[in-house]
Amino acid sequence: MLPSRPAFASLAVSALASLTVPVFAQGRGITEVPGVQVGHFTLAEKPTGCTVILTEHGATGGVDVRGGAPGTRETDLLEPRNSVSVVHGIVLSGGSAFGLDAASGAVRWLEERGHGVDVGVAKVPIVPAAILFDLPMAGKPQVRPTAECGYKAAEAASDGPVAEGNVGAGAGASVGKLIGGRSMKAGLGTSSIRMPDGTVVGAIVAVNAVGDVVDPATGKVVAGVRTEDGRGLADARVLLRGGAFFPPRPGGGGPAAGHESMTNTTIGVVATNAPLSKAQAQKLAQMAHDGLARAISPAHTPSDGDTIFGLGTGKLEVPTDDSRLALIGALAAEVMADAIVRAATQAVGLPELKLPAARDLAPQK
After folding, report:
1. What is the DSSP letter of 125?
2. Quick one: how far is CA 122 from the chain centroid?
3. Does 101 reside within a domain?
4. Domain interval for residue 104
5. How many domains does the chain have?
6. Which residues are bridge partners to 276 per DSSP?
């Protein structure tokens, strides 16, 4: 993972003076959080796939949906006013609404192993999901994740290092679609922070944004809409101030054609080993959106599906009061921003689709 950032020092001192500066955990990303496992399945026929985040023995779940055109499953159940508080997994998938079927495969895998809410006649696994829109990739809209893909992703899940870049839900992701024909490849990224008291906060995210990925540590664009010659970065923030925005297709649903129709959808999960109530898990997801907005410009537009889930595994037996939740939520924003940057830097370009990645462009000065 990336090194710690100076901003963390003031954050930790102001939020919880007894703790020293947190650092990005090395190695595994969100699976640094005890009780969390991750598995991917990537389709060979075209760049798309799904990612399953497993909490087999249950975790408290919450969600915050801020995109105007989300594709989700079981998000109503995660509202604090509703009864069931435990989830057994989260699925992130490509394939637009068709990709929600991947969650059914994860449910089947969990049921076969006896995980779920005991309702007397069966154990029912609770697996919310969110999707991104990558149907036009490689001109094969009929190829998208199925229930079998979700089953295989769950089967592949482990608490080891998480593969990043062109995998799982990030396989068909791209960024920089404000102007047609100048987009770039992005993908999936993960990050985590471990505190001296044993608290761990992690994030995983698939980035399919119409705008740019910006590194909050430097303010520089990492990947996004390219210059006319295709060799540099135009900076969506500058283009937006000039009034540029790729025109939506008739009837809404995002830009008109090609890669540019893969609208602004960033979907992810933040997790901690701290015990959380449903309301606290929802607040964790809400605060993580701050990191999304720092690292993506623009974000949360009317035609996107930006969705973040929050999970508390409760493996750390330290009560979570408001002060502690404030710190954990602030760190969730940090790891989400870092994971978004990694989704861009770990992606590999697709020359055959004219989609370079960040590593293919000359570094910004």
Report:
1. -
2. 31
3. yes
4. 7-12+19-352
5. 1
6. none
Which tens digit of pLDDT belongs to each residue from 335-349?
A: 999 999 999 999 999
Mean pLDDT of 81-97: 96
Q: What is the CATH number of the domain that holds 65?
A: 3.60.70.12
Pair 207, 32: CB distance under 8 Å? no
Interior angle at CA 66, CA 257 and CA 292, nearest 5: 85
Amino acid at 171: A
Give a yes or no: residue 241 inside a domain.
yes
Task: Give the other-Cβ count within 10 Å of 306's Cβ.
Answer: 27
As a whole number of angstroms, the distance between CA 333 and CA 299 comes to 14
Distance CA 84, CA 55 (A): 15
Residue 180's pLDDT is 85
The span from the CA of 295 to the CA of 224, in Å, is 11
181 has pLDDT over 80: yes
In a domain, 147, yes or no: yes
Tally Cβ neighbours within 10 Å of residue 197. Answer: 14
Q: 278-334, pLDDT tens digit by residue?
A: 999 999 999 999 999 999 999 998 878 899 999 999 999 899 999 999 999 999 999
Cα separation values, 154 from 130, 273, 305, Å: 16, 21, 24
Rounded to two decimals, the pTM is 0.90
Nearest CA to 272 out of 315, 334, 218, 209 is that of 315
Q: Which helix (H) or strand (E) holds 347?
A: none
The mean of the pLDDT values for the chain is 89
- Within-domain flag for 2: no
State the burial class of residue 253 (Cβ atoms within 10 Å of its Cβ: 0-12, 13-18, 19+). Answer: middle
pLDDT in the model for residue 69: 83
* CA gap 338, 203 in Å, rounded: 9
CA nearest neighbour of 25 among 352, 342, 344: 342
Kindly report, residue by residue over 29-40, the tens digit of the pLDDT.
999 999 999 999
Neighbours of 16 (CB within 10 A): 18
